[in-house]
Amino acid sequence: MSRWAVVLAGGVGSRFWPLSTAERPKQLLPLATDQPMLADALARLEPLVPAERTLVLTNATLVEPIAALAPGIPRENLMAEPRPAGTAAALAWAAHVIRRRAGDDAVMISVHADWAVADADGFRRALASGAELAARHRALVTVGIVPDRPDPGFGYIQPGEALGDGAHRVARFVEKPDRRRAEQMVADGYLWNSGIFVWRVGDFLAEVAALTPEIAPHLAAHGDDLAAFFSAVTSGIAVDVGVLERSARVLVLGGDFGWDDVGTWAALRRVREPDASGNTTSGLVHALDAEGNVVYAGGNGVVLYGVRDLVVVTRDGLTLVTTLDKASDLKTLIQSLPAAFRDIA
Asked: Where do the H-state alpha helices sit in 120-178?
């Protein structure tokens, strides 16, 4: 089996403002560990897929920083999307490239660059199992995460008919629910929709051709021209919606390896080790009579005294102070910033 990896590493990560910027988005920041998140992602994959068979899809402005961060990835494997077009288009293009290089039977593993994973060995075992299932069943396989809480911030997958080897047919995908519905789905055995996908590229592209008219004609017309394809394709279509929800060939494999998508500053409480008072800190921080705070001291040192459940982020020239609840809505804050703060950011 020829295994290939595709790492999606675009986007800005505005929910990690003010540290995350267009020039240095969250996938290039040391958030979950002391290494940039993309470096962690590539290190997790390397025992399973060699660097020469790893593709990174990103923004044009990030190609040079990623090349410096990951010198082992061949330059031709760093692919710049001219504009954000959605995961369906990005993965169709990646599958098309892999098919040209390795044929229809090559197995493609798709992950994101901005995840935290506690058990890297368990993560790789799940991906290897997914690759075997994809090849054996000619299926599109997704790894669904066994939930450890009813989180309304994730989509969910309902497992259907069991096929053995831990695999089920997918009964349905569910968009982000409210908390009450999330609690019921966790109780009913639903899985988190992680965005981990494994398939033979020939099978995936056949489903795209049959089911996704927003993409397939443009791939056929512009298969030798990345810029033309991304300019022509319908943007904003997620692969779940554009392909998987329309396909009868989708299987889900349960995974339990400490996965988190690190979507907001508050997520650092789950992926970094807290102190005895539940504070999660990075950099020069001193806390007294302070509990449950997230502090990222990227510029000046930070001293906390008598506060709870805050997010404090510093970088040179700028400090953000908010609450854990409000940290999930930084886009609203960013849109309200006056020019003086936009210039700093």
From this structure: 120-137
